[in-house]
Amino acid sequence: MKSIILLITLSLFAISCGEEVLTAGTVNEEYTANNIDSFELNTCSQMHFEKPPVDLLFVVDNSGSSLLPSFDSIKQQIRGTINTISNDFDYHIYIAPLIPLAGQSLTQYQTIVSDPSTLPSPASVNIVSPENISLFSQATGNNDEHGFRRASDLIQANRTNGIFRKKSNTIVVMISNGDDNEAVITIQGNQYPDPTKFENLKNSLLKYSKKYSDSNPVSNPLEAESFRFISLVAHTNCNGWRPAINYRKMSKDIYNYMGYTDDNYSRDSKNLCSGNYSNLFSAINNSIQAVVIGHKYNHWKISNASASSIQEDDITVKKVTPEGVVTQIPIGAANGFQYLGHKVNQNTRYEPTVGEPKTGLMIKLNGSARVSYPDCIIAKTRTPTEYFGFLALPREPQAGSIKVVIRGQEVAQDSTNGWGYIGWHEVKNIKVPGPTGASVNPPLNKSGYFIQLFGSAIFTNGDSIEVYYKPAAL
Question: Could you tell me which residues come within 8 angstroms of residue 232 by beta carbon, excluding any fewer than 6 positions away?
């Protein structure tokens, strides 16, 4: 609080000067009460960044041709490729063979997680570190490559164990030196892409995206915030491999459907023949942004002052949006604010968790008056209106010599709207309730020879008073 201080100026005038103003031996005391001070506290709601959840499915070719040295070296690079995933992500990585082996479960494969606590039961998942990844045995049989169906089945099977999370960013990485041979049709011994089968398989993948499930009926949707199908496949004839028409088309179609623009050159299909996969995740790392979590508040600090330092019934609170829209918050228990006084370590935030304790003068925000990021609050307070009903003279005055001038007008000696002399007091609080019943605390104690003021002679903040008198003993 800015204490109200009575400024006292004592002037002694000699007979040889100032006689046109003061008679010989008269003392002039001047008193001025400080003006009311207004304070403004402008503070804004807060936010924090959270690592975005990213769930990746690696489907790795384990057909007979994948054992050739040219492809085996590619598999060894997978470990390094995984390490290029941004550490700004909260990631789950599930690594499964393209062609299942007899007796293998869809949920038994290796998982890499940045934070095991994000899994409901970490012990039920086969968690490994990137350096301990082991790749898969060669598949046997006719080696039908149903890559699209395989990816969809792996995601669905690993939802309840928490590997593929709702509202995450879900990414399939298909690594193969072949092509999906389910989405084809055989005509006179020759295979051609089958548009109907392809569309059905594409929808079986797209159903995991929020964009698709928002406009199509999907049972228990995954609602992935983003969904990508990245294919690392041959784009040309190389090493005995033929171009993967279906995988490339799936990457392109899903890229276009989701409306991405960060990889318009390859559209999420990387060339296995290039031998350079270091930038496999560059588009992902650049396109997925940290999640902004805005905080919500039902309490707000309006001042660092003490409770007695402000006029409680003269608090104004305004909410301000980033666009500059200003809304005054009324006093009220339904959709307004309530003044709580001085609080210590009062939690101000109620979402996303209770917190952000503050110490100072507090208000409670109710209903629509609550504040959310990025809005700000302008709180205005002022020092209390104070009234003063006593003047302390440093010297004893002569009876009949006192003249009191308040706000430029001489005030008569009168017990109704004037003044009276009450003599010496060791300690007296010069504050009085005045016409509004103002608080007299904290007290402003003075010592001296006192003049008491009555009625309209009582003065308040900003007023100036002059007292002329002759000391009893010079």
Answer: 74, 173, 174, 175, 176, 269, 270, 272, 277, 280
